Amino acid sequence: MNVSLAIDYVDPKTDHKFHLPISVFKKSSNEKEYSNLEKILDKLIDEVRDNEKHPLAIAMQIIGDNLEQYDNEHHPTIGHNINEIDMVKYLMKSHNLNQSDLADIFGGQANVSKFLNGERSLSKNQILGLKNKFGVSADFFVK
């Protein structure tokens, strides 16, 4: 006797049919499983939309949370390997600036040099100054 657990649902309004084997609630262990679950999630999102009381909303939430966890564990965030020194150097280069152009933010060109050589860290005021000068989020300078 072969027994498998599943959720079967037919939307009474659209007549859309869903067959969700219990395995869809398992966390992905590889990219193939991830891709399959992503397709199921897309269909659930199309069906559930923003109706939190929809019978499939909890299934959508569990699958989405599992995919997010897989992403966090297997795909690092953008910029995870960029430190604040690299960021400032990039911003300086892209704006054609040299160390003396940041002296007012750092309290002197020597302090800019010390920071860029890894001898000093950024203060809150320096982060605020860089944020304002370059129009970027302070998050780029806080690790």
What does this structure look like?
This protein is mainly alpha-helical and 143 residues long. The protein is 49% helix and 7% strand. The chain has six helices and two strands. The chain has helices spanning 31-48, 57-74, 84-94, 103-106, 109-116, 124-134; strands at 6-10, 17-21. Strands 1-2 form a two-stranded antiparallel ribbon. Strand 1 (6-10) and strand 2 (17-21) form a beta hairpin. The mean pLDDT is 91.
Biggest β-sheet: strands ordered side by side in the sheet: 1-2
Mean pLDDT: 91
Biggest sheet overview: 2 strands, antiparallel
Tally of strands: 2
User: What is the chain-wise order of helices and strands?
Assistant: EEHHHHHH
Q: How large is the count of helical segments?
A: 6
Poorly predicted runs of 5 or more residues: none
Q: Helix coverage percent of residues?
A: 40-55%
Derived from helix and strand composition plus strand pairing, the structural class reads mainly alpha
* Backbone shape: elongated
CA radius of gyration is 25 Å
Distance between the termini: 56 Å
